[in-house]
From TrEMBL:
GO cellular component, one term: membrane
Pfam families per record: DUF4149 (PF13664)
Native organism: Mariprofundus micogutta
Keyword line: Membrane, Transmembrane, Transmembrane helix
Protein name: TMEM205-like domain-containing protein
Entry superkingdom: Bacteria
Origin organism lineage: Bacteria, Pseudomonadati, Pseudomonadota, Candidatius Mariprofundia, Mariprofundales
Residue ranges annotated for the TMEM205-like domain, each copy included: 13-111
Length: 164
């Protein structure tokens, strides 16, 4: 088995993990937390911790894919411009959410205190809602980018040189 085949398998695994780390916390865990936690504050705190861990893992996985692809290109494999663009978009979206939007949300949460006790018409709560919406939109676009990367696969050197 060629080294590029092992790298390609590693890339596919990393891409699938990135997609899972976007879909499961965002569209499975968070809704369940908010439905079952009994407190919006507790659910939000737990969801924030889960998203932080998932985002950090996605950043490391994206870096691993980058390294694998660079190594594969040195050995003559073509990765394709669209795959590079999608990977860089995904990484930029996740880093933007993690290092730009999340600190704003954390600061607003600290100013507001327990969300359960804040009036719905409070301007700070509305501002929090706007930033939360921005974060959710970024998360959605990142998930779509990850799904596209998984659908495109990596770029195996050749079907007959890498057994499935």
């Amino acid at each position: 088995m060629r080294v590029d085949c092992i790298r390609m398998g590693s890339v596919r695994l990393c891409l699938a993990l990135m997609l899972g780390l976007l879909v499961v916390p965002g569209y499975v865990v968070a809704p369940v937390l908010f439905a079952k936690a009994g407190s919006v504050s507790l659910a939000g705190s737990l969801a924030g911790d889960i998203f932080h861990l998932a985002n950090m893992a996605i950043i490391f996985l994206a870096a691993a894919v980058l390294v694998f692809w660079l190594r594969m290109q040195k050995s003559g494999a073509l990765i394709g411009r669209l795959r590079w663009i999608l990977l860089l978009l995904l990484a930029a979206l996740i880093m933007g959410n993690e290092f730009a939007v999340s600190p704003v949300l954390a600061d607003l949460k600290a100013q507001l205190g327990p969300m359960d006790q804040v009036a719905d018409d409070n301007p700070q709560r509305k501002l929090f809602g706007m930033w939360h919406g921005i974060s959710a939109l970024i998360h959605l676009v990142a998930a779509i980018s990850a799904a596209a990367l998984v659908a495109l696969g990596g770029r195996a050197p050749s079907k007959d040189t890498c057994p499935s």
